[in-house]
């Protein structure tokens, strides 16, 4: 059984269907990349998996670790081990990064981590991510640059250690050094028990994080699939050739994927 299985999913807002028959399967230990042009439905899929209340699942199925995600609230999905890194993380004035992570960790595990032990673990993660000691004392994403927000989300990923991490454009707003640090953190967390779904427009982060599979989404459909080489081909040729050759055809199923 795959860790994550999406089967013929139709979803969107109340008024508009954005995803049209999306199917996707990710096994434990795998890294998958979901690529595609703007407004192709990539973030909608991420939100549907995480349980965003603004996204309506109209038909199809989503299963994670054998559980029907549609029957679970967002916090229940998180406790099961699903993590979403936002494309645009919100600002939360008055709440520090350190206190937010500690509270979230308590909610996820049901255990109260002693203060000294928690801050020791946090400092270790800050050092690994090459973040300044005072980073945890800052208000959550308030006044942050795009790159700082992404590194904050990477810090949360490192502390929470989920079973499945969905990273929505983790390369957005990052300079070369920050991109390398984020990628190294993801690579350090790769294990036979954990999976990643990386959503991105560009191949550049995949220079650092080698995916097992690449899926291309156009107009709410996964129209093409392949191995790591597909990301390089997209970088060289753009998305127009995919639209010309595959858009308008039935959504490509998992068992018709090409290498």
Question: What does the average pLDDT come to?
Answer: 92
CATH topology term of the domain at 4-89 and 162-256: Rossmann fold
Order of helices and strands: EEEHEEHEEHHEHEHEEEHH
According to DSSP, the number of beta strands is 12
Overall shape: globular
- Which range best describes the helical content: under 10%, 10-25%, 25-40%, 40-55%, 55-70% or over 70%? 25-40%
Question: Can you name the CATH architecture of the domain at 4-89 and 162-256?
Answer: 3-Layer(aba) Sandwich
Question: What is the fold's blueprint, element by element?
Answer:
Blueprint: E1 4-12, E2 17-26, E3 31-35, H1 42-50, E4 56-64, E5 67-68, H2 74-80, E6 82-85, E7 92-96, H3 97-109, H4 115-128, E8 139-140, H5 146-160, E9 164-168, H6 176-189, E10 195-200, E11 213-218, E12 221-226, H7 228-237, H8 240-246
Parallel strand pairs: 3-10, 3-11, 6-9, 9-10
Antiparallel strand pairs: 1-2, 1-4, 4-5, 7-8, 11-12
Helix pairs in contact: 3-5, 5-6
């Amino acid at each position: 059984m795959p860790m994550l299985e999406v089967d013929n999913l139709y979803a969107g807002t109340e008024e508009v269907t954005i995803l049209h028959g999306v199917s996707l399967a990710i096994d434990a230990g795998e890294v998958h990349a979901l690529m595609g042009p703007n407004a192709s439905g990539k973030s909608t899929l991420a939100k549907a998996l995480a349980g965003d209340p603004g996204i309506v699942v109209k038909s199809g199925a989503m299963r994670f670790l054998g559980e029907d995600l549609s029957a679970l609230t967002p916090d229940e999905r998180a406790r099961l081990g699903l993590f979403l890194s936002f494309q645009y993380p919100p600002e939360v004035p008055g709440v520090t990064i350190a206190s937010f992570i500690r509270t979230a960790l308590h909610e996820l595990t049901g255990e109260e981590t002693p203060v000294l032990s928690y801050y020791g673990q946090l400092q270790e993660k800050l050092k690994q991510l090459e973040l300044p000691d005072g980073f945890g004392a800052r208000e959550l994403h308030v006044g942050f640059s795009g790159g700082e927000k992404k590194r904050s989300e990477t810090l949360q990923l490192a502390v929470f250690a989920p079973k499945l991490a969905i990273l929505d454009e983790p390369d957005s707003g990052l300079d070369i050094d920050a991109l390398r640090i984020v990628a190294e953190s993801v690579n350090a967390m790769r294990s036979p028990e954990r999976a990643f779904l990386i959503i991105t427009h560009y191949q550049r982060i995949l220079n650092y994080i080698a995916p097992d599979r690449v899926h291309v989404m156009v107009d709410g459909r996964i129209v093409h699939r392949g191995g790591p080489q597909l990301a390089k081909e997209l970088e060289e040729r753009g998305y127009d050739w995919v639209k010309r050759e595959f858009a308008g055809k039935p959504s490509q199923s998992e068992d018709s994927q090409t290498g």
